From TrEMBL:
It comes from Micromonas pusilla (Picoplanktonic green alga). This is Translation initiation factor IF2/IF5 domain-containing protein. Residues 148-250 are annotated as: Disordered. GO terms for cellular component: cytosol. One of its GO terms (biological process) is formation of cytoplasmic translation initiation complex. Residues 148-194 have a biased composition (Basic and acidic residues). It comes from the Eukaryota. Residues 15-129 form the Translation initiation factor IF2/IF5 domain. Keywords: GTP-binding, Initiation factor, Nucleotide-binding, Protein biosynthesis. Catalyzes the hydrolysis of GTP bound to the 40S ribosomal initiation complex (40S.mRNA.Met-tRNA[F].eIF-2.GTP) with the subsequent joining of a 60S ribosomal subunit resulting in the release of eIF-2 and the guanine nucleotide. The subsequent joining of a 60S ribosomal subunit results in the formation of a functional 80S initiation complex (80S.mRNA.Met-tRNA[F]). Residues 195-211 have a biased composition (Basic residues). One of its GO terms (molecular function) is eukaryotic initiation factor eIF2 binding. Residues 231-250 have a biased composition (Acidic residues).
Amino acid sequence: MATVNIGASNAGDQFYRYKMPAIQSKIEGRGNGIKTNIPNMVDVAKALARPPTYTTKYMGYELGALTKCDEKSGTYIVNGAHSAQVLAQHLEGFIKRFVQCHSCGNPETVINITKKDTIQLKCKACGFVSDVDMRHKLTTFILKNPPEKDKAASKKDKQLRRAEKEREEEGAELDRQAEAERRRKKAEKKEKKEGKSKKEKKEKKEKKSKKSKDDDEDDEASGSPKRDSDSEPEPSDDDDDDDEQGQGRD
């Protein structure tokens, strides 16, 4: 089965990894009952990660034709005669509107329906969230028939979220331990600094006291005790009188 790159802008890139089967057209019936069967619509839609009903309904809206979708038998029909080239052109419009990321153009996107009943495309490559133009008729069909969530992908997402939560909790615990260790070291440093300061003050005081004691001992050893000016006797009045009498005799 021939394959083509997803998105017309990537048609010439032989190394482009996102590919899909080339859409096929099989015209059946005649007259008013003529119709176009798309035998590989399931494979095309699978490559785009979209339900085949979306692509078939989109073509019906664009061509103004009724469609028939039988998921059990895998039959997808658009009324009228339409060539594979015409179907491919309309499929390209579907890809641009409902598949490709509006930022990076990557076709690996997931449809999300918001609480306000709007449709968004979340890109798995760049994470950008694209808003789908809600004026197209297919948006009403999508809102009434939302895509089924892949159970395996949903389980994987839950596991990833759980693992991320555990990592965040572990990181928060490590941060708390680091903060506690930082505070402990800070307290130890402060306590050590205060202890050193007290020790230095004590040593300084003891050194000063010892020096004063040594000075007193040196004074005693030299026999020159410090005289107290308050203990010296004051000259008496009798001495003054004796001096005056001696001067009179002279």
